[in-house]
Amino acid sequence: MSAVAPSSSAISLTRYLIEEQRAGRINADLRLLIEVVARACKSISIAVGKGALGGVLGDAGTPGSASMNIQGEAQKKLDVLSNEILLEANAWGGHLAGLASEEMDTSHPIPDVYPRGNYLLLFDPLDGSSNIDVNISVGTIFSVLRAPDGVVQAEDKDFLQPGTAQVCAGYTTYGPSTMLVLTIGHGTHAFTLDREVGSFVLTTRGMQVPEETAEFAVNMSNQRHWQPPMQRYVADLLSGKQGPRGKDFNMRWVASMVADVHRILTRGGIFSYPLDAKCADKGGKLRLMYEANPMAMLVEQAGGAASTGRQRMLEVQPTGLHQRVPVFLGSKREVETAVRYHHEFDAEQP
Fold it and tell me: Mapping DSSP to helix (H, G, I), strand (E, B) and coil, where does residue 89 land?
């Protein structure tokens, strides 16, 4: 990884995107779309940064009665605000045929008063929002697809494309600094928000996830609900040098996917949210279209791997806008090992 110190010669996000356009890797519409999303994320960063001073903490809805999203999860005020910021910012640009969000039951068409474009945008406006009230890093995740040929006003079915069809993916993490991590299919790059200047600056070009790792991220409170291959896999990790893996592992768990994946992109590791008895009827915990797929693209573009435990994540054919899947992503060799445990278990079944 090569770091770029902010200076008068530092590369801004706008300059980076223009250079990619000149190289023929993106077109003008996609460049503008990414810039609009980045500007929206700057607005969300300001709201997150104000915290209690902005009056945006706590649950949405009336006092004593939280509003619920399509996932059946309590919406935070910042969830709703972040969703509105992204919707408003992207409605009028002329580069989208439709949007879809974790916070909305169905996709959102572009209003008739605005021109429409050839892209589809999916996003989780504020991932990890259950942590916002305790001042832990949260983030925004987004994915960009091409609208199918001939589609002017997109419907839910038009979004149901495998992760391999993504033309762009990224997330913004709102922590001690605000960072945008982005891929357009030619590596994964990190941009840090220079708050004084108001622009994202390239600070890591070509992020690389180490192939090997000794760190894993998983919600251990769900252990009793896991399937046998996951039970065996984590037991072997915890057995350390004396176990079959022959080395000690450390566990890290923030419970904010953006923060956990950012750590893995920065220094390696494996993030797991496996299938368990609590979410088996839903297919998993995390959403494929606007959580797992964009993160999988970012990690693969950084030399890592992403899987459901039984299939490459980006090859899953989606069946619903809010479809859920198990997730294993991070250091390539460790993801392959976790997948091997699942395949060995499946092979033993009658």
Answer: helix
